[in-house]
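Troubleshooting: if your tokenizer reports a length mismatch, compare your output against this known-good record of 72 residues.
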Amino acid sequence: MHGLVALAVLFSTQQSPAASLGFEPGTDSVLADWTQVATYLNGLAQRSPYVRVDTLGRMTEGRPFHLLTITS
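Known-good structure output:
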């Protein structure tokens, strides 16, 4: 239950994905690119002690392969 509480607190105090990306996720024919997603996730991690972004390695395009951890 603590993890769900941490997640609720996190998202109640952070900018929504739609506000950050400029569109509502799930909108037909609109996808966030890697830079938009990485910027949003790193922003969450910078503003919350409950969020951590780790780099596990590199993707085939050479971009960092991120792991997002949300926990209490």
